[in-house]
Write a structure and sequence with these properties.
alpha/beta; Rossmann fold; Arc Repressor Mutant, subunit A; 2 domains; 5-stranded parallel sheet; 4-stranded antiparallel sheet; 9 helices; 20% strand; elongated; binds calcium ion
Length: 246
């Protein structure tokens, strides 16, 4: 199903939330089952991890869109799991689910980078509403995706497999332009005009210098990667890494 961006876009997202994956990190089997079944009925995909270490592993492997995180967990506790997630990813919403309901705990959780804090016992309907709010905030125009790359337009951060990579201002603008036009060939002239500005007088060969540096940082190949060279024309951003195509 393809959604046109319109006034009803948010409403559609909250009804169908296509491909939204929720990671549940919780050691109590009953709660896991209750949450997972409830969320699946609402159309979300769920992944369950029963301790902190498995939760971290699942986070980096599964790349969920949102995390429900218990505080008291075997192997690695929730607050430490959150710290390690936030070291690599400041964007994915993380909601604490916890019986530790003191103010101090809530503040510690939020300071560490949790987006919300829900006290056990909670009602499923309330949790669902909070999840929808965070998805609405998260599925705005702030984040753009290309293969294993995500960029956040407001914070001007770029992530490869959830790990932040430092881009220069121009590299970021170049990547943003290509992602905004993914699937279409962008000519060197178009790129110069939009990324460097209409008054830029230099040779368009400057793009190749920036493109090489950008690809190196994104660890992607010029012929098969997510940003490919179209010889004699320009460049194209594409979701597939093309490893099986040639
Ligand atoms: Ca627990």
């Amino acid at each position: 199903m393809v959604f046109e961006k319109s006034d009803n876009f948010e409403a559609l997202i909250t009804c169908f939330h296509p491909d939204m994956k929720i990671l549940i990190v919780e050691d109590e089997q009953g709660i896991c089952r209750f949450l997972s079944e409830g969320l699946q009925e609402e159309g979300y995909e769920t992944v369950i991890a029963n301790d902190g270490a498995k939760g971290l592993e699942a986070f980096f492997e599964q790349k969920p869109d949102l995390v429900l995180l218990d505080w008291m967990l075997p192997t690695i506790d929730g607050i430490e799991v959150l710290k390690r997630i936030r070291d690599a990813d400041r964007v994915t919403p993380v909601l604490f689910l916890t019986a530790k309901d003191t103010v101090a705990n809530a503040v510690e959780g939020l300071r560490t980078g949790a987006n919300d804090y829900i006290k056990k016992p909670f009602s499923f309907d309330e949790l669902l509403e909070r999840i929808k709010v965070h998805f609405r905030n998260h599925t705005d125009d702030d984040n753009r995706f290309l293969g294993n790359v995500r960029i956040n337009v407001s914070s001007r951060q770029a992530f490869v497999d959830g790990q932040e990579v430092k881009l220069t201002m121009r590299e970021f603008d170049l990547l943003l332009y290509l992602i905004d036009h993914k699937g279409t060939v962008c000519t060197r002239d178009e790129i110069i005009r939009h990324v460097w500005g209409i008054k830029f007088q230099y040779d368009t060969g400057v793009i190749d210098v920036f493109m090489n540096s950008l690809r190196k940082k994104l660890m992607t190949d010029r012929d098969k990667g997510i940003i490919r060279t179209v010889r004699g024309v320009g460049f194209i951003a594409t979701e597939t890494d093309g490893k099986d195509e040639r």
